[in-house]
Amino acid sequence: MNPSSFSADLIVVPGWIISMASRDEVLRDHAIVVEKGIIKALLPVGDLPENCPVEPIKLPDHAVLPGLVNAHGHAAMTLLRGFADDLPLMPWLENHIWPAETAHVGEDFVRDGTSLAMAEMLLSGTTTFSDMYFFPEVVAALCTKSGMRAQLTTPVFEFPTAWGDGADDYISKSLALRDDCKNLDRLSIAFGPHSPYTVAESSLEKVALYAAELDMGVHIHLHETAGEVLSAVEATGERPVDTLRRLGLLGPRTQCVHMTSIGSQDIANLAETGAQVVHCPQPNMKLASGTCPVSELRAAGVNVGLGTDGAASNNDLNLFNEMHSAALLAKLTTGDPTVMSAYDTLHMATLGGAKALGLDQEIGSITPGKQADFIAIDLSAPSTQPLYNPPSQIVYACTGAEVTHSWVAGEALMHERKLLTIDVDDTLARAKHWRQKISAQ
Ligand SMILES: CSC[C@H]1O[C@@H](n2cnc3c(O)ncnc32)[C@H](O)[C@@H]1O
Ligand SMILES: [Zn+2]
């Protein structure tokens, strides 16, 4: 690079760069050069000019990788973490979670719960999240303040809730939010029809039409349990994934969350239509919902991202935990320890998630031209030494507490584990206030 034309506003020189741009690539002695929020180059350190326009941030004990993408969650549900545990999905939802939401969800609940979620996610390496919750306009404002990148999916139900009266009302609010956020670079708006068992076919068809016309994503809980599939077959003669395909709702813009209880025909349906899958291993295990056959899906060419789901069912929003579980669960359920390698698992939590959200041209790998969204992980502690293979350490040995820095579009959101855009003390005080209020009922 010609020193006279060298310009940059951020230069990071880590011990290792796991770019996720090509399989198993781990770069040593390279610098990430960023200008105006975009990755400009990955340069051998020796090619940096002697007098850089900014002081390079040297992190010799750290691996830098793309910011993690939490491809499914309900951020504000942090306020219901530990509220109802050790139950199957439908009794958990119908007898505990939905009554609590009816009693408490409003703008304040969403603001305070989402702030807590954003703090937790940033501290464990997530820079982009997908959210499916009420009052997404409140979440949009919080994202702008915190600098996090997000896909906000707007709830669609057949029945009224605090955010809407019925399917048409939810859909029109979704369209209005899309208009309101059109100039916000770090936000995308997608439809979030809750599930095939809470949204009528006629409403799903409307969502499909708008999504196709406006090129919007669709994010839906699908095949979460064997019971869901069985009830659908009894009621309609069809498996939920077949219903979505018949309604024109299965395609590359559709993000199918959970996908347990699936067989080869379901996998073929997903592969033929290019639909996306989001795997949530820990809530699937905790609610004993079932297993998503991720290695079979990936082998069939289906893209898979990774999500935590909400803190009321997980009970954390830590993608390091989720990666660990995803890798181990895939090996156990297939009886094959060679599936879901550390690299494959990291792929699911970065580029796979970015692709699921339709963001893979912008984020998901450290590639010149993409947004400068990346994190630094300190691998010098006893629990991550000695170091043979950084991806192995990250997936099998890290806890998330090793993440020290994060940047979104080149903006520092965390420095040496201090959050720069979120007031953690205030957020914790508000969470305590909600615990008192919710447990008093
Ligand atoms: C459309 S707002 C989100 C809605 O979904 C509920 N929810 C949380 N976790 C799950 C899950 O695993 N399956 C189905 N629904 C879930 C949440 O409580 C909100 O009401
Ligand atoms: Zn969910």
TrEMBL record:
Its UniProt entry gives the catalysed reaction(s) as:
S-adenosyl-L-homocysteine + H2O + H(+) = S-inosyl-L-homocysteine + NH4(+); S-methyl-5'-thioadenosine + H2O + H(+) = S-methyl-5'-thioinosine + NH4(+)
Details of cofactor binding: Binds 1 zinc ion per subunit.
Q: One Pfam family name from the record?
A: Amidohydro_1
User: Which of this chain's residues are annotated to bind substrate?
Assistant: 101, 194, 224, 309
- Output the InterPro entries linked to this UniProt entry: Amidohydro-rel, Deaminase_MtaD/DadD, Metal-dep_hydrolase_composite, Metal_Hydrolase, MTA/SAH_deaminase
Q: Where is the Amidohydrolase-related domain?
A: 64-412
Keywords, sorted A to Z: Hydrolase, Metal-binding, Zinc
Positions with a binding annotation for Zn(2+): 72, 74, 221, 309
Molecular function per GO: 5'-methylthioadenosine deaminase activity; metal ion binding; S-adenosylhomocysteine deaminase activity
Instruction: Cite the Gene3D superfamilies for this sequence.
Output: Metal-dependent hydrolases, Urease, subunit C, domain 1
**Enzyme Commission number, as recorded:** 3.5.4.28, 3.5.4.31
Names of required cofactors: Zn(2+)
| Stated family | Belongs to the metallo-dependent hydrolases superfamily. MTA/SAH deaminase family. Belongs to the metallo-dependent hydrolases superfamily. ATZ/TRZ family.
Tell me which NCBIfam families the record gives.
PRK09045.1
Q: What does this protein do?
A: Catalyzes the deamination of 5-methylthioadenosine and S-adenosyl-L-homocysteine into 5-methylthioinosine and S-inosyl-L-homocysteine, respectively. Is also able to deaminate adenosine.
**Annotated protein name in UniProt:** 5-methylthioadenosine/S-adenosylhomocysteine deaminase
Q: Which organism is it from?
A: Congregibacter litoralis KT71
